[in-house]
Amino acid sequence: MSKRRSSVSATNGAASRETSQVSPPTIDKQKLLLSSDAGHFSLVRALHLADLITELNGLCGILSLFSSMRYCLGDPSEHGNLWAALCFLPLGLFFDFLDGKVARWRKKSSMMGQELDSLADLISFGVSPAALAFALGLRTAADHLCLAFFVLCGLTRLARFNVTASHIPKDASGKARYFEGTPIPTTLALDALMAWWLSNGWTHGDLPGGVWMAGTVLEVHPVVLLFVVHGCLMTSRTIHIPKP
After folding, report:
1. Is residue 132 within 8 Å of 192, Cβ to Cβ?
2. How far is Cα 244 from Cα 225, in angstroms, rounded to an integer?
3. What would the CATH number be for the domain defined by 7-242?
4. What is the rounded average pLDDT of the residues 84-113?
5. Pairing mode of beta strands 21-22, 7-8
6. To bridge 57 with a disulfide, which of 120, 177, 179, 187 should be the other Cys (CB 3.0-4.6 Å)?
7. Distance separating the N- and C-terminal Cα atoms of the chain
8. What is the C-alpha separation between 28 and 144, in angstroms, rounded?
9. Which pLDDT band holds residue 98 (cuts at 50, 70, 90)?
10. How far is CA 54 from CA 10, 28, 85, 206, in A?
11. CB 146 within 8 A of CB 220
12. SS3 of 212, please?
């Protein structure tokens, strides 16, 4: 994902973000606040404006999760909560883009921001889509394993980014030249697909492709393999997608 937190100069040995050059004094100041200020609201005071916007990305993912759970507890024929779960995810993407814009505008980035970015993305574009797929009807044991694989791929991709971002070639402005593997927000393509299923009333037993090996321990909905493929694309090291 196009991160606002991309690179710290090699001479400082600090961690990097994917979209903006980070100045050492900014990082040192926030580190000092986080480690030495013991006040009740010290953590809030240490956050930059861009960090607070990142929190809104995470909030959208959490609300999507709750909406999926509310659907599972209610009438399966009432799809209002499913639509709400779907709508929160592109809103999370909006905040994911906005935090980078704000970080570059204010010229404030940090290691804290990089970690917040990854954690919020995991909730909004990893866990929440998997929960939504479960709510739609991918509920067999094999479905669970495939969805768990998808989430773990997203987790691994984000962790790899945090470790390797400083080694990806940069352009003159300090931005990484390409994404290594598909960015995790591309899971919105799966969300759009699920929205199409829902608009046609294809939930539970009506999901496209039906069920394979029904009645056995290997019972699975073949459409769940789309999540497996997407997880593999996210963790690929051979796919290099040029950044806009």
Report:
1. no
2. 29
3. 1.20.120.1760
4. 87
5. parallel
6. 120
7. 11
8. 43
9. very high
10. 26, 20, 19, 37
11. yes
12. strand
User: In angstroms, rounded to a whole number, what is the distance separating the alpha carbons of residues 3 and 67?
Assistant: 27
Phi and psi torsions of 8, nearest 5°: -110, 140
Return the closest-CA partner of residue 85 out of 106, 105, 65: 65
Q: How confident is the model at residue 178 (pLDDT cuts 50, 70, 90)?
A: confident
Here the contacts of 103-107 (C-beta below 8 Å, separation 24 or greater) are 103/4, 103/5, 103/17, 103/19, 103/20, 103/48, 103/50, 104/4, 104/19, 104/20, 106/48, 106/49, 106/50, 107/20, 107/23, 107/26
What distance in Å separates the CA atoms of residue 181 and residue 170, rounded to the nearest whole number? 17
Q: Are 165 and 16 in contact (CB under 8 A)?
A: yes
Q: How far is it, in rounded angstroms, from Cα 152 to Cα 68?
A: 20
